[in-house]
Amino acid sequence: MFNFDFYNPTRIVFGKDRLVSLEQLVPANANILITFGGGSAKKSGLMDKVKEALGSRKVLEFGGIEPNPRYETLIKAADVVREEGIDFLLAVGGGSVIDGTKFISLASNYSGEPSDLLKFGFIPIPLDVVGKAIPIGTVLTLPGTGSEMNTGAVISYENGKYPVMSGLTFPKFSILDPTITYTLPKIQAANGIIDTFVHTTEQYLTYPVNGLLQDRFAEGILLTLIEIGLKSVDEPGNYDVRANHVWCATLALNGLIGAGVPQDWATHMIGHELTAMFGIDHAQTLAIVLPSMLEVRRDKKRAKLLQYADRVWNIQTGSEDEKIDLAIQKTREFFESLGVKTRLSEYGVSADKIPDVVEQLKVHRMAVLSETQDLTLNISQKILENAM
Asked: Which of 58, 65, 189, 227 has its CA at a distance of 20 to 30 angstroms from the CA of residue 209?
């Protein structure tokens, strides 16, 4: 097992009717900017409940944060923060709203060109670049990204998607009320299951380092998602199912299962380019890339793929290659059972576009990927070709 530091200060407030906790969680004298997306939080009445729980505090609203939050939109919100003396941000939404709010938190205190904050990638932004940030709380409406309990964000700028990491952007608290997610469209519930599943595999399907407990944590999340996935899509009002969906999503990316083990985020990096170029939902790009990635990289991931086949899919018979084949097939079938297509061609993307995707990987400094840093652009091209 690798050396690691684990620190996560986010308070999780989980369960039904927890919005009333805002009274205790948000400072009494706070000047608050509520951030949200396309307006569903207002239409559903959630925003009124949030503001009621905030009582007499000064509250402003900033809506319109996109599903892949745009830098230009977030800069407008940062201007509001500075102009209005905002000292607390409350994100009401899914991962994109929370991601965007993290960037607003950082950009509001940065004296330089805010686009500079996009250049650090997976390296946390040094404290001497941004020394403080506006505190954040979240009310989660869409489980999947795990952004409610980590420091990461992904921001869309020009023709790319950029990871932004900072220890300053751990949410102070996140309210996870599964009943708030009941009104999600089926495709968003399916996307949330897949996003969570792939977050888990990218910290699990690498190579063994004797992280026994981390493996069992990851396998527990995967087995739970397989058990509840279709029910979460088809039975949105099933509290126990949706509660497990929400908690799996949070635990998949709060640092716990990735502590002390290798991680491979190549599926996400390739997927980001597909979203940026073709507008395919983030989770749908993961459903396209992951099965192909596992097929192309099966030799590098052989030991963990066999463990995955055994422990997650209960595949006990056949040769090693047959077990791996069946595990990858079952992964693809699971995604498709949720109503999500897993081939690029099914999204109208033709093979002649693949070189353009590979070129964008190069432009965005993603020429070498994976847990072993040997996934070259040529291999990325093979993965995309195999995903047709």
From this structure: 227
